[in-house]
Amino acid sequence: MDFQNYFPIWTKLTTSQQEQLLGGLMERNVSKGTVLHNGNMDCTGLLLVKTGQLRAYILSDEGREITIYRLFDRDMCLFSASCIMRSIQFDVTIEAEKDTVIWIIPADLYQGIMAESAPVANYTNELMATRFSDVMWLVEQIMWKSLDKRVAAFLLEETSIEGTNTLKITHEAIANHLGSHREVITRMLRYFQSEGMVNLSRGTVEITDTHKLESLCDN
Questions:
Q1: What is the pLDDT of residues 4-60, one digit of tens each?
Q2: Per-residue pLDDT at 1 exceeds 70
Q3: How many C-beta neighbours within 10 Å does residue 61 have?
Q4: How many domains is the chain built from?
Q5: Is residue 6 within 8 Å of residue 48, measured between CB atoms?
Q6: Distance of alpha carbon 110 from alpha carbon 104, whole angstroms
């Protein structure tokens, strides 16, 4: 499908604006692990996911990663165009979690259209509010939820995303998502295994009791 079918307010643009967007668009195929945006000094442009999966994360002062949100088909990333959001005071890194096809909208092009189009400005503000809600939700999870509940919730989310109870994921990758240490995650997963919730093997976490994990999240 074409960009027109993915951009949610395409029909609210003028013909001139549509032509500008199509003229400035770049389509790019990126491999898993590719860093698309790195920090607030990097103004990559807006990213619209055609197919695949991206991850947005921040780094602590100690160098630990923590995922703030993920992007799937049809999702738009604003933080990759940090130059049009001067109030952003933290560095966000955008990385491809899977082989991904994206469209890149140059920041200056989008900013020009946003300045003259109320629908684009409204859409951008709504999207920005959604992303900040994601960040605030994450802060709430870190502050008020114990790590066992966060690990359980993450595993359940992964099974939903991947469509399987056998997850090809390392303890290091889970730690990076949750802003923890690999050793801590390993201890937690071994506890889950002793309770019959998961089965561990090299590079794999198999969910063996979904109901127990769900109960842990709900308690």
A1: 999 999 999 999 999 999 999 999 999 999 999 887 667 888 999 999 999 999 887
A2: no
A3: 5
A4: 2
A5: yes
A6: 10
Cβ atoms within 10 Å, residue 30: 18
What DSSP character marks residue 8?
A: T
Q: In what order do the strands lie in the sheet with 204-207?
A: 166-167, 204-207, 198-201
Q: Write out the residue range of the structural domain in which residue 40 sits.
A: 3-143
CATH code of residue 176:
1.10.10.10
Contact call for residues 32 and 97 (beta carbons, < 8 A): yes
For residue 57, the cross-strand partners are: 67, 93
Residues 139 and 189 in one domain: no
The 10s digit of each residue's pLDDT in 105-155 is: 999 999 999 999 999 999 999 998 888 888 888 888 888 889 999 999 999
Q: What share of the chain is helix, strand, coil (3-state, %, to 5)?
A: 45, 25, 30
SS3 state of residue 12: helix
Instruction: With H, G, I as helix, E, B as strand and everything else as coil, classify residue 215.
Output: helix
